[in-house]
Amino acid sequence: MLAGSAMLALTREARAADTVDDVLARIARARASVRTLQGPFVQTRTIGLLATDVRSTGTLTMVRPDRLRWELAPPDDVTFWIGPQGLAYRTAHGQARVPAATARVAGALDDLRALLGGDPASLRLRWALRVLRDDATGVELDATPVSGSAPLHGLRFSLMPDLVRPIRALLVEGPRDRTVIEFGALVVDAPVDDAKMRPPG
Asked: pLDDT of 147-167, one tens digit each?
């Protein structure tokens, strides 16, 4: 009886792994020919120490395979650039860079790029993936860290039926801290000025 239960559990795990593999392969194929992705988003941060949520609006611009511009509108008024060299940002008070060689930062940047327009299979380096939904409305995946040193406690993201454009992302930063990003009408393969994707200085 115990042997039968163990075999059943292994079979279920194998089927779940096959499902994840299939979904990741389909996403990679759908994104293979995509050059750019850009459009609006609304970002809501829930911070346990604050009485209210912090809501921001912004615009993302991604040039595959490895450049992302994340711009938050006033009153936040901050722009982040993520590229091969690391993270750079500019605010009304100045600007700075963080090198990609920093292991913790590099992992977070890779995860963000994979979620928004990269190869989601790369998430498996740090995350255990599970398919929550795969139907005519799109795909939703959940990710839990495989190591206690991960910068986030959990990820959940959903994609449009084209498997290219994200719909929503949930980043769990702690028991009471999380960020929800709701994406608007994102445009695929519209022209992007190369200078826009490079931080100043």
From this structure: 766 678 889 999 999 999 999
- Write a three-state SS string for 103-149: HHHHHHHHHHHHHHCCCHHHHHHCEEEEEEEEECCEEEEEEEECCCC
- Look at residue 10 and tell me whether its pLDDT is greater than 50: no
Sign of CA dihedral 79, 159, 120, 187: negative
Asked if the peptide bond before residue 191 counts as cis, ω within 30 degrees of 0, the response is: no
* pTM of the entire predicted model: 0.84
Token readout for 166 is 């994200």
Q: Phi, psi at residue 147, to the nearest 5°? A: -135, 145
DSSP state for residue 186 in the 8-state scheme: -
**Alpha-carbon distance values, 14 to 25, 121, 145 (Å):** 16, 17, 20
**36 pairs with which residues across the strands?**
63
Cα–Cα distance for residue pair 100/83, rounded to 1 Å: 8
Looking at the DSSP assignment, which residues form a beta bridge with residue 97?
88
Tokens of 26: 């389909």
Task: Classify residue 145 by burial, with Cβ atoms within 10 Å: 0-12, 13-18, 19+.
Answer: middle
| Measured distance CA(9)–CA(15) in Å, rounded | 10
Q: Is the model's pLDDT at 42 over the cut of 90?
A: yes
pLDDT tens, position by position, 111-147: 888 888 888 888 888 899 999 999 999 999 999 998 7
Tokens representing 125 are: 């380096």
